[in-house]
Amino acid sequence: MEAAYAIECRGLVKRYGDVTAVDGLDLAISPGECFGLLGPNGAGKTTTIEILEGLNRPDSGEVTILGRHWGTHERELRERLGASLQESRFLDKLTVFETLRLFRSFYRDGKTPEEAMRDLSLEEKRDTRVMKLSGGQRQRLAVACALTGNPEILFLDEPTTGLDPQSRRQLWEHIRAFRSRGGTVLLTTHYMEEAEQLCDRVAIVDHGKVIGEGTPAQLIGRLRAPNVLDFTSEPPAPLELVAAIPGAFQPRQRGNHWSVSVSSLAEAIPALLSALDQSGSRLEELSTRRAMLEDVFLALTGRELRDE
Amino acid sequence: MSSPRRSYPLFELIRARLLEIAREPEAIFWVFFFPIGMALALGFAFRDKAPEPVSVGITGRAQTSVLREALTRSALLKPQVFSSIEEGRAALRVGKIALLVENGSPIVYWYDPTRPDSRLAKFEVDQALQGAAGRKDPVAVRDELVREKGSRYIDFLLPGLLGLNLLSTSVWGISYSIVNARLKKTLKLMTATPMRRSDYLLAQMLSRFALLALEAAVIVVFGLLVFQVPLRGSFSAFVLLCAVCGLSFTGLGLLCGSRVQTIEGVNGLINLILVPMWLFSGVFFSPDRFPKALHGPIQALPLTAANDALRAVMLEGRGLSTLAPQIAVLAVWGIISYAIALKIFRWQ
């Protein structure tokens, strides 16, 4: 019988000394879904994904992968999963082809190294040693290795951290291609844009707990203030002025630049203009946008993700 | 896009490790060129040749030239004249000469009796002077010189270098490779695949065995060709002995690499293990020179056992049945190291 969920965990807890890295975390991810664990560094994302991958044991809680448990079906599960770890490196002196041939030999069934290279556009780098690859190429090799056993689930821990935008987009395409063949993906990221682009559902993780979960649109839609005003003025507006805008939520200042979430643009903009006018401040720039996942994180935690 | 497995993971892991080593110039240097360079340098430094004459000084008030003539007749002496006794003593103090002869009545020998070359010089100088003065020896004697292959310093040295090299390349090679893989999280990445952990460790051992075989062959063939160091024992006994050494030494390497998380840490640990053996295990000179109380512990070191057994097989042509104590020492070290290493091995 096929399991209802590809990945399921309940009440995961993991402590390191006094630090509770994962603090009662529940997840349920359906087959074919792309699920993102989203949060700042140190939120417990890596510990969580490594527990789900069977590389780390939780202090308490239960993990079910494809209806199996790590304790009883480790070898079977390893054949059916693929993983790329954060900051892990391959053997520097081996070429791309040799690395794929090595990893392929670990699995009963899977792709040939040639197929794996074609899937991740690495054919031109076939005989290049790992140490000479760029960051993006290395990440593609990591994903190629994770996919070499034709897994049903792909775990990716910070797959695009440190990559330039072009390499990042390229890798997204390869992850989408895996999904289009029916694969399940669990990834961690601290790039909200990545989560919005790739994930069907995301869980926002902070201090080892899930503090928000849903599709990116649901999470944004649940905000009380789903619009954001960005403006600068001369002289800069004081906090009282910004906080007094109707429906204003979490005003934040960077230099003389203000960002403030508001519930209704139609009410907020006229109020802002007249308040600036009365205080003798001249508006220099004004833009508005729909809230993004980053604003969701801010609304849920009161902290900005990028500062972490 | 799915096809069954075409090659065994153990085979691929060994191949990957050997490719890595072959692409590492430093590894090749330590495995092959270091022992050969060492054997060349020490072999030529201590090669069989006419003994170097001993420098002795002559000083005194008058007629030093007569003394000098008498001493020059001895092939073992190289006399030189000093104009004052102070100058002569200064040369003696810094070791430029082994003995200072002060002409006078009586003739005075200045020397340090704790220096073997000084004692030799005193004996030779006295012999030469008394002979020149007309002393006749009452007993007739004749010298018979022996220079057999197998009893020279290089014959002692080469098996020791072989043992030392098998040990150091095993320990450095295995533990570095493992610690590096742990540091870069390659180990962790591999444990996320269906790879059997025993395959990884076995591959480390077997790839090292392949290298040890090459290493032993190169050193032995080099010794045979350049210095005619004999391999008197049977070839199979020699191969088996090297295999036992390999088992023991790879175990030590695995143990060194089993838990350490930093390169500095593993450096220190390896030095802690290897340096005493460099010193005590009879690589460069016989450990019999150490005080008696140390002999027991020294015999229990794996490198001492390896060197003793290698010398016995290569130089004396002994079979393994006569080397049971040494083989037992190697086997115990190997088994205990493997057992502990497997128990405490850290994959992440």
Question: Which descriptors apply to this entry?
Answer:
heterodimer; A: 308 residues; alpha/beta; Rossmann fold; Alpha-Beta Plaits; 2 domains; six-stranded mixed beta sheet; four-stranded antiparallel beta sheet; 14 strands; B: 348 residues; D-Maltodextrin-Binding Protein, domain 2; 64% helix; 6% strand
Q: Kindly report the average pLDDT value of chain B.
A: 88
Number of helices of chain B: 13
Distance between the termini of chain A: 44 Å
How are the strands of the largest sheet of chain A arranged? Answer: 5-7-8-3-9-10
Number of strands of chain A: 14
What's the Cα radius of gyration of chain B? Answer: 28 Å
Question: What ranges of chain A have pLDDT less than 50 throughout 5 or more consecutive residues?
Answer: none
Major pleated sheet of chain A: 6 strands, mixed
For the sheet with most strands of chain B, the description reads: 4 strands, mixed
User: In what order do the strands lie side by side in the largest sheet of chain B?
Assistant: 3-2-4-5
Residue share in β-strands of chain B: 5-15%
Total individual domains of chain B: 2
Under CATH, the homologous superfamily of the largest domain in chain A reads P-loop containing nucleotide triphosphate hydrolases
Entry summary:
The complex is a heterodimer of chains A (308) and B (348). Helices cover 34% and strands 29% of the residues of chain A. With 308 residues, chain A is an alpha/beta fold.
Question: Can you describe what's shown?
Answer:
The complex is a heterodimer of chains A (308) and B (348). Chain A has 308 residues and is of the alpha/beta class. Chain A has 2 domains: 7-215, Rossmann fold (3-Layer(aba) Sandwich), CATH 3.40.50; 224-290, Alpha-Beta Plaits (2-Layer Sandwich). Chain A has helices spanning 45-52, 70-80, 96-105, 113-119, 135-147, 165-180, 192-198, 216-221, 239-243, 265-278, 293-301, and strands at residues 7-16, 19-29, 34-38, 60-65, 81-84, 109-110, 153-157, 184-189, 201-206, 209-214, 227-234, 249-254, 257-262, 282-290. In chain A, the strands form 3 sheets. Chain A has a 6-stranded mixed sheet, sandwiched between helices. In chain A, strands 12-13-11-14 form a 4-stranded antiparallel sheet, sandwiched between helices. Chain A has a 3-stranded antiparallel sheet with strand order 2-1-4, covered by helices on one side. In chain A, helix 3 packs across helix 4 (113-119). Chain B has 13 helices and 5 strands. Chain B has a 4-stranded mixed sheet with strand order 3-2-4-5, with helices on both faces. In chain B, helix 6 packs antiparallel against helix 8 (197-227) and helix 9 (235-257) runs antiparallel to helix 12 (302-315). Chain B is elongated. Chains A and B meet through helix 2, strand 5, helix 3 and strand 6 of A and strand 1, helix 1 and helix 7 of B. Strand 6 of chain A pairs antiparallel with strand 1 (3-4) of chain B, so a sheet runs across the interface.
